[in-house]
């Protein structure tokens, strides 16, 4: 009697062309996976005509809107599971991705065996988060006595911190982000409060530590 | 060309080494993080590194290498050209864009190694 196995159909979105090919080769070598193809980005205007069960989605770049990219991926690939690959090990970015509907979050420097394990986990209906990011998040939660601590800045607040670190005044930040000076001032107050700091110079240190500049 | 490779993305290393060897490079060492002293000891002719994965320490290490090994060819594989690297006039620098296809990367590497 012939045994039939259902393969997980995978599509890869990877801007880095050579890395995309490496991913295709790695995943295609796994007997339970079928790699349908790869593209550098998700384009709803020209969606690939494939029925993928799972999408490996590369999300990187300083100005990327993680939520928007994942929503675009969902729009194109429907109910496919989404496994985000990122160079960022920052818990707050992982949280943004999961909140936007990602089923897995992995750093791009994972080992090949860990990537395969993660994809299998996600294909099986579970979620997967890079243990380094999960561990970091857990430590922060413990340190903040059950509350999320200083990394819980919104995307806009992150932008404001980055511009503070570049030496811009509130007025200049307002011009750059098309906001009033008063709105920027409110953002700065919230940032100082969330980070539990009292001066802009400390926000600069935070921005450097978090790789925002 | 004796090439020292710094690439943290393990998944990518086999494809990268294949590309470098295809362009005529011989690999002297592959590391997942920049160790400037190990680079000095290995005496490569070219250093290949992922410019998007460098933290402040790695940037300082790279600047140290530029200053102390002016004959070292630098191949920076990154989304955009490194803006904070103060390369000397004799530094040979190649920026490979991550979005480039295999053939474009190969051509750029071949031109760079031939002109070394």
What does this structure look like?
- The complex is a heterodimer of chains A (213) and B (116).
- Chain A has 213 residues and is α/β, with parallel strands linked by helices.
- In chain A, strands 2-1-3-4-5-6 form a six-stranded parallel β-sheet, sandwiched between helices.
- About 2% of the residues of chain A have low confidence.
- With 116 residues, chain B is α/β, with parallel strands linked by helices.
- Chain B has a five-stranded parallel β-sheet with strand order 2-1-3-4-5, covered by helices on one side.
- In chain B, α1 links the parallel β1 and β2.
- The mean pLDDT of chain B is 89.
- Chains A and B meet through α1 of A and α1 of B.
Topology:
The complex is a heterodimer of chains A (213) and B (116).
Chain A: E1 8-13, H1 17-28, E2 33-39, E3 54-58, H2 66-77, E4 81-86, H3 91-99, E5 104-107, H4 112-123, E6 128-129, H5 131-143, H6 155-165, H7 170-177, H8 181-195, H9 200-209
Parallel strand pairs in A: 1-2, 1-3, 3-4, 4-5, 5-6
Chain B: E1 2-6, H1 13-22, E2 26-31, H2 36-42, E3 46-50, H3 56-68, E4 73-78, E5 92-97, H4 102-114
Parallel strand pairs in B: 1-2, 1-3, 3-4, 4-5
Which characteristics define this entry?
heterodimer; A: 213 residues; alpha/beta; six-stranded parallel sheet; 9 helices; 6 strands; 48% helix; B: 116 residues; five-stranded parallel sheet; 4 helices; 5 strands; globular
Quaternary state of the chains: heterodimer
Percent range for helical residues of chain A? Answer: 40-55%
Estimated radius of gyration of chain A: 20 Å
Order of helices and strands of chain A: EHEEHEHEHEHHHHH
Sheet-strand content of chain A, in percent, reads: 5-15%
**Share of β-strand residues of chain B:** 15-25%
The major pleated sheet of chain A works out as: 6 strands, parallel
What's the N-to-C terminus distance of chain B? 9 Å
Report strand order across the widest sheet of chain B: 2-1-3-4-5
So how many helices of chain B? Answer: 4
The topology string of helices and strands of chain B comes to: EHEHEHEEH
Shape of chain B: globular
Identify the most extensive interface between protein chains: A-B, 22 and 21 residues
Q: What would you call the structural class of chain A? A: alpha/beta
């Amino acid at each position: 009697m012939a045994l039939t196995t259902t393969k997980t159909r995978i599509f890869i979105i990877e801007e880095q062309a050579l890395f995309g090919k490496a991913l295709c080769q790695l995943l295609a070598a796994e007997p339970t996976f079928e790699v349908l193809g790869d593209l550098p980005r998700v384009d709803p205007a020209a969606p690939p005509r494939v029925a993928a069960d799972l999408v490996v989605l590369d999300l990187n770049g300083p100005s990327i809107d993680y939520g928007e990219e994942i929503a675009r991926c969902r729009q194109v690939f429907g109910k496919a599971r989404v496994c985000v690959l990122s160079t960022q090990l920052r818990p707050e970015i992982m949280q943004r991705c999961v909140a936007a509907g990602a089923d897995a979050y992995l750093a791009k420097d994972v080992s090949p065996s860990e990537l395969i394990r993660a994809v299998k986990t996600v294909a099986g209906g579970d979620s997967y988060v890079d243990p380094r990011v999960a561990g970091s998040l857990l430590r922060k939660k413990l340190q903040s006595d059950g509350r999320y601590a200083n990394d819980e800045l919104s995307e806009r607040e992150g932008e404001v911190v980055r511009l503070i670190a570049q030496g811009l005044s509130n007025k200049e930040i307002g011009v750059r982000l098309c906001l009033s000076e008063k709105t920027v001032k409110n953002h700065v107050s919230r940032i100082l409060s969330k980070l539990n700091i009292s001066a802009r110079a400390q926000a600069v240190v935070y921005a450097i530590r978090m790789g925002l500049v | 060309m004796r090439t020292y490779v710094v690439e943290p993305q393990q998944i990518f290393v086999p494809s990268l080494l294949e590309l470098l060897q295809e362009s005529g490079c011989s690999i002297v060492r592959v590391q997942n993080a920049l160790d400037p002293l190990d680079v000095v000891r290995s005496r490569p002719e070219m250093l290949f590194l992922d410019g998007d994965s460098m933290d402040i320490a790695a940037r300082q290490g790279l600047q140290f290498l530029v200053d102390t090994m002016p004959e070292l060819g630098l191949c920076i594989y990154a989304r955009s050209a490194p803006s904070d690297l103060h390369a000397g006039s004799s530094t040979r620098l190649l920026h490979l864009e991550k979005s480039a296809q295999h053939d474009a990367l190969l051509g750029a590497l071949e031109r760079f190694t031939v002109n070394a």
